Amino acid sequence: MVDTAPAPSATAAQDPGPLRPPVSGRALVAAGLLGAAVAVTWLAFWWIGLSPATLAAGLDDTARLLARMWPPTFPAAGDVASMIAETLLIAVAGTGLATVASVPLAFTAARTHRGSAWTRQAARAIIVLTRAVPTLAFAILFVRIFGLGPAAGALAVAVHSVGMIAKLLADAIEETDPAPAEAARACGAREAQVAAATVLPRVLPALTAIVLYRLDINIRASAVLGIVGAGGIGVALQTALGSLNYHRAAGIICVIVALVLLLELLSVALRRRSTGRTPGAAALPAGRAPYDVGWDRGRVLRVLGATAALVIFLVALWSVRPDPGRLSSAWPNLSALLTGMWPPAFTLDLLMAVLESLLMALGAAAAGAACGLVAALLTAANTTPWPALGAALRVLLVVVRGVPDLVYALLFVAALGLGPFAGFLALWISSTALAAKFFTDSLEQLDPLPREALTSVGASRWQAFTAGTWPQFVPAFTGNGLFVADLALRESVVLGIAGAGGVGYLMQESIATLRYDTTAAIVIAIAAVVYAIETLARTARRHLL
Hints:
The longest helix has 35 residues, at 461-495. The protein is mainly α. The protein has helices at 10-13, 25-48, 52-68, 77-109, 117-132, 135-146, 150-174, 179-186, 191-222, 234-242, 246-274, 297-319, 324-340, 348-379, 387-402, 405-416, 420-444, 449-456, 461-495, 504-512, 516-544.
């Protein structure tokens, strides 16, 4: 048979050279995010006026302030106990109120809800709004409505917590098996009966873990609510800093850090115990029939735990002093606030303040992610070249992470003066510690086989990391970095309350001067920017992870 295939042309016969793999969409997204992070960081440095000289001078001023704060002087033991108790009661009361409100809201917002579409959309809008506005911003509003004291702090904690608890609970509801609910509906049960009988018992473990985690966050937030007059130990801190009593301020900061670290250990232990059942283990004890509904040790302990939690919540709610007369007198303040908010007054100064918060947060998050990566490589068990140094650095990062961002902002404002430079440094420190924790956890969860295989054939530590560890770590690095940026943006809003730049100062000033139309514009701008960044981060994670 004669070969009729055409002869190759001279061009085709030439060596095509090395083949290049096509550039994937994931690589393009990652490169775009990296370029955007570099550009935003440079723009933030330019906006703030940050340079090596100004950074060195600022750190020198901060070191002199810390020297003035040493040695710390602690309040009397009774005063400390009273302030800590009030802080804890604010957090417990707010978390309990948020849980009560979040359960029906989550069932309404879930995609499995059979009600009208407009109620589901309204529930989702409430969840987004309450999650976008920070706790301290709500505290400013409620202090204006209800007056000074822990009641305003508890309500601020409750409203902001609804966004997180309801969102995570709605996700858990949507992931449950729909068969029992469909069977109950087929028997004529109403939606409330279906939710209470078939869905709520299945999501109760998830709800318990979510509430415990939120309580941990709320205790940290409650420690600084007193700065705006919403009760707790933050009142003493603000008083000490305002009177230039830096030794007493240092002692109160030490108390706050110790309290936060102790409660973090306690909350981790409680979460592990509440979700500690081995995956795949039998749901019922051995030898017990599925239809046996009698009482056993586990059921008795769960009922006692739920009863104790209810009693603690009621005691906390009563302890924040919800005076009925005071609540009734708050209606005129609320009416004036709501009527004065329309129409919102958007101004150029407001938009520039929002831009300043955005640049301050994103620049600090990018710088913190870079520093956190270095810290994570030194602390992760599978990457650190010096285990002793890694262990010491891990302890230091835990302590740094235990100090609320607003405390850092207050210290830098006292040392450097008002302006975004102080807020940027505060967010940089907190973002570094938070990113280091996330990156360390992600590094230690990677598959060690690629790195070990490369090491076994003679690869150096650096070669094993770049070829075996880093490719696995890129998705987690990107996702966690975006999450740190999201948190930094929320925190940047409230740092302005301490004079650390951004839109928070304008919000506090507008409420103090009764310019509620400006307050409304600030709240709308905060919610829009936070929601936009959250949507961008969620979209980027979907393309990268």
